[in-house]
Amino acid sequence: MLNRVKPVLLMSIAGTALLAGTAMADDKEIVAIYKSGTQQYFIDQGDGFKAAAEELGYTAKIINVELDANLAISAVSDAIASGAKGIGLTAPDQALGPAVARSADEAGVLLVATDDPIMKEDGSPVPFVGFDGVAMGTKVGERAGELLKESGWLDGARYGVLSVEVQTLSVCNDRTDAAKEQVIAAGASADSIVQVSYDGTADTSLAATGPVLTANPGVDKWVVFACNDEGVLGANNALKNAGFNPDDVIAVGLGAYEACRPWKEGIPSGFKAALYISGKDVGDAAARTLINSIETGEDLPLKTVANTTIVGPDNYADYMSCD
User: Which Gene3D superfamilies match (predicted)?
Assistant: First the structure.
């Protein structure tokens, strides 16, 4: 179990001297820091975090650092300085793990990694709340493979598979690597898979996919999956810009918050299915995990995993509102 706050002078990871034990915020505050806080998934996660905290008598602060590692370091430092009792962090760079874990540990502040695992200096994991990346990618790949079989494209069509990847993030590699395995198991040839590198945003996926399509003029039908819904959305937009029909695209999202938008409006789309993941569930679990440990003194569980469900245009509304 982490040591509680001691009345000694500490240096924060941002280089600011902090007096441990000096709480300048609500005595029952927890903080969630997100790498892409304007994405709907993280907005939902923040809502779940706040709601659970309030239910349990705590206040919650949400901080968006928009893929900026320096902002993330500062946000952790500020949360510690303000007297936060616990922090949930989706780090923009997993390499931040040792620094933020050390800072939180020295200050006696509980820390959980949300969505993306991070490690301490000794190589042990920071307690994690989120999803199982391999299981997620497996479900996406299985559905993509089923749709590919049903399409008839395996019988002589000139198809390709776009694997849109955040290649610097282990949790994303877990997802897309597992999806590739399942699509190949369904009958796709390994050499039909084209890797597209992006940073987790729709804009970079769009920009990176365009040249790939130009470089593969012989392909007239595409299967698409990615680390998140934004990756699939960007690739779908690139395909649309290149003149591909929705019927010539089998895209399986991961998140469903972008995939459901054309479904809700009844607009033809490359999105044929998506793995629904609830950011609210992760936020709720992170807050409850932190508060339970704060109140009881029990160690944080090393891994808390949320459930996922494949949805499509016919059943998504049974699981989500698509706001």
Answer: 3.40.50.2300
Write the pLDDT tens digit of every residue in 266-296.
Answer: 999 999 999 999 999 999 999 999 999 999 9
Residue 108, domain extent: 9-130+279-306
Q: What DSSP designation does 218 have?
A: T
CATH number of the CATH domain containing 287:
3.40.50.2300
Tens digits of residue pLDDT in 62-105: 999 999 999 999 999 999 999 999 999 999 999 999 999 999 99
Is 318 exposed, middle or buried (CB count within 10 Å of its CB: 0-12, 13-18, 19+)?
A: exposed
Residue 312 domain flag: no
User: Closest Cα partner for 39 from 309, 318, 234, 239?
Assistant: 234
Closest CA to 176 of 245, 223, 221: 223
Q: Kind and range of the H or E element at 253? A: strand 249-255
CA 181/CA 190 separation, integer angstroms: 9
- 247 and 224 within one domain: yes
- φ/ψ (deg, to 5) at 263: -60, -45
Tell me the residue ranges of DSSP E strands in 59-179: 59-64, 86-89, 110-114, 128-130, 159-165
Q: Are residues 71 and 197 in the same domain?
A: no
Query: Any long-range contacts for 120-126 (C-beta under 8 Å, 24+ apart)?
Result: 125/302, 125/303, 126/97, 126/101
User: Is residue 221 a part of any domain in this protein?
Assistant: yes
- Phi first, then psi, for residue 257 (nearest 5°) are -75, -25
* Whether residue 37 is found in the same domain as residue 116: yes
**Total structural domains in the chain?**
2
Q: What is the pTM of this model?
A: 0.80
Residues 6+ apart with CB under 8 A from 73: 13, 14, 96, 99, 100
